[in-house]
Specification:
By secondary structure, the chain is mainly alpha-helical. 57% of the residues lie in helices and 0% in strands. The chain is elongated and about 75 Å long. It starts with 7 loop residues before the first helix and ends with a helix. The model has no long low-confidence stretch (mean pLDDT 75).
Length: 111
């Protein structure tokens, strides 16, 4: 339409964005949308796994992984230490299985 030389006013009128009297339809007021709070467990998991990736030796045992996880949790701010410890207690073995099975650390938290 526009590439064929049709004036923009006619195009806007044709698709009912403007009235024939050339007064534009008032745009709706923008709606304020707040991003939802991030899931703390997910963010914590991703952070811990990224840190873990830089700590683990090539051939690691579950005990070494647990020690590294405990070390990472102990270095977090006090408000995150307990949730991190809970994450390790609840999912430590699953984290070990995933990482030792070749799952990249950045994918462990989503699987």
């Amino acid at each position: 339409a526009i590439s064929g030389g049709t004036p923009p006013e006619q195009v806007c009128t044709a698709i009912k964005l403007c009235h024939n009297d050339t007064a534009a339809v008032k745009a709706p007021e923008p709606v304020k949308v707040e991003a939802p709070e991030a899931d703390v467990a997910c963010v914590l998991c991703e952070f811990v796994l990224k840190e873990l990736a830089s700590h683990l030796p090539a051939n690691f045992t579950e005990a070494e992984l647990d020690a590294d996880l405990d070390d990472i949790c102990s270095k977090l701010p006090s408000g995150l230490t307990a949730p991190c410890d809970s994450l390790v207690k609840l999912f430590g073995h699953q984290i070990y299985e995933a990482v030792s099975g070749g799952t990249p650390p950045d994918q462990v938290c989503t699987e």
